Amino acid sequence: MDTAPARKIRVVVVDDSALIRSVLTEIINTAGDMEVVATAADPLIARERIREHDPDVITLDVEMPRMDGIEFLRRLMRLRPTPVVMISSLTAQGSSVALEALSLGAVDVMPKPAFDLRNGLQGYAEDIRERLRGAARARVRPAAPRVTGSQPLPPPHRRLPPPSLIAIGASTGGTEAIREVLEGLPAVGPPIVIVQHMPALFTRTFAARLDRLCPMQVKEAEDGEVLRPGWAYLAPGGATHMAMRTTLQGWCVVLQPTPPVNRHRPAVDVLFDAVAREAGRRCVAVLLTGMGKDGAQGMLHLRQAGAYTLAQDEATSVVYGMPREAVVLGAVDEELPLEMIAPRIRTLLVGGTR
Fold first, then answer.
1. Which active-site residues does the annotation give?
2. E strand spans, 105-257
3. GO biological process annotations for this chain's record (predicted)?
């Protein structure tokens, strides 16, 4: 019996550079499961193209004539929520703007194609195709207002001593999920170690933003520094994995320039495996929204070591990939809506009681 071919992912490319539009169109159209249905040189043209073609995903530049990408994104998310992947230049200023885009509802951010790196464009092409596939499955409808604590939490599945460490992993959609979790935690608590898949220049800006918004102090992690209570440490993007080891002074950060794991560096699995070895049952681990499977195997090792493991549920995940893989492996003690994760950690911080 013949079956109809799956519908291709429909993409609209918005960028004021004709060269970038051409390169992105070639990258996307070369994949068998997606196609560029329209391009636009600025947001005003894009508005008409989007209305005409009803795309599954939009790639959007930041700096454009007549209206910048941030203002266009703000209007788009209010009037016609659509998955958006921002294409941003990797500068300190650009990373700040890209993080603003993520806070407004963009699913992901990508650097502009690098034409001066030998064989670099092929890796970029594979990366952007994967991100577009993930974005096409993303939930971007406006979130209903959350009323934290409106329903009492049931007791934890297991009673453990108060944890000495919190480990968090996330990918697509994770910047806002991490912010919400950290905002709900106390200013003084166990150290927190975090891996969020991000480009290299974005993590320092993201850490600075979290530091402004959250009760605890947040910084980009540095090799060899000792983990301190009341601090959260974000793995630097791009060049290294983040692990940890035990020293006479306590747990300290280890940054390793080893090959990517699960196509990522830093990888959540590398951090979670290190935490399982060094902290075991003294840890609470959280796996948030993200595409792919990174973190699932590491979370299984954490649970086997006695850690208490939490995963974000499907309904509140932008992309329910990484949490789902952990659930399938049997690595998760509890699967919770995003707004319930910080309250659950708070109960665990006092030994599982309110």
1. 171, 197, 294
2. 108-111, 165-170, 192-196, 217-220, 231-234, 241-247, 250-256
3. chemotaxis
